[in-house]
Write a structure and sequence with these properties.
The chain has two helices and nine strands. The two termini are 28 Å apart. The protein has one domain. The radius of gyration is 20 Å and the shape is globular. The longest helix has 28 residues. With 169 residues, the protein is α+β, with helices and mostly antiparallel strands. About 9% of the residues have low confidence.
């Protein structure tokens, strides 16, 4: 019964991530809209395809500086903020994803987050390879992924995705 309740709590996050995946796929691979207009070029009929606009809830805004995530421990080593996106019109306003660089190895950063998230206000729900998924007491979700830059460059890339729990008005 506990597994079913856990899955039910994850449904909004999975839906949100699925829509972000579809939008990223659409943007990256040029999946085009169904509405076409005909153009002519050197007596050849060419279909001009137009990309649709994403739903406003998936419209992102760049973050100029890292967003403070409530009760999320700050890495005690060096993290340099690289970029981030905020989704202010999402159902769960406050969703964000941020990318950091650390001079520390991926294993050092990953182990720090695994120990720290497992002992504070957060509870680890899943951890595999380079990913840790944690949930706080209010059911907010944070996913941390840590990757090595490459075998020739020391350091790691840290991605943090935060999804606050949906609270109907």
């Amino acid at each position: 019964m506990g597994n079913i309740q856990a899955l039910i709590k994850l449904v909004p996050l999975m839906q949100y991530l699925f829509f972000i995946f579809l939008y990223a796929l659409q943007s990256s691979y040029g999946v085009l809209a169904q509405n076409n207009t005909n153009c002519s070029n050197n007596n050849k009929s060419i279909k001009k395809q137009v990309r649709p606009h994403p739903p406003t809830e998936f419209t992102s805004q760049p973050l100029a500086k890292p967003m403070v995530i409530p009760n999320l421990p700050q890495y005690t080593g060096s993290l340099i903020y690289q970029s981030g996106l905020n989704y202010p019109k999402a159902i769960n306003s406050g969703n964000c994803q941020m990318r950091f660089f650390s001079k520390d190895s991926a294993s050092t950063v990953y182990n720090w987050y695994k120990v720290t998230l497992g002992s504070g206000n957060w509870q680890i729900k899943a951890s595999r390879n380079n990913m840790i998924k944690a949930q706080d007491r209010n059911a907010n979700i944070c996913i941390v992924t840590v990757n090595s830059i490459n075998k020739f460059t020391p350091g790691s890339q840290v991605n943090i995705f935060y999804c606050p729990v949906y609270k109907p008005q």
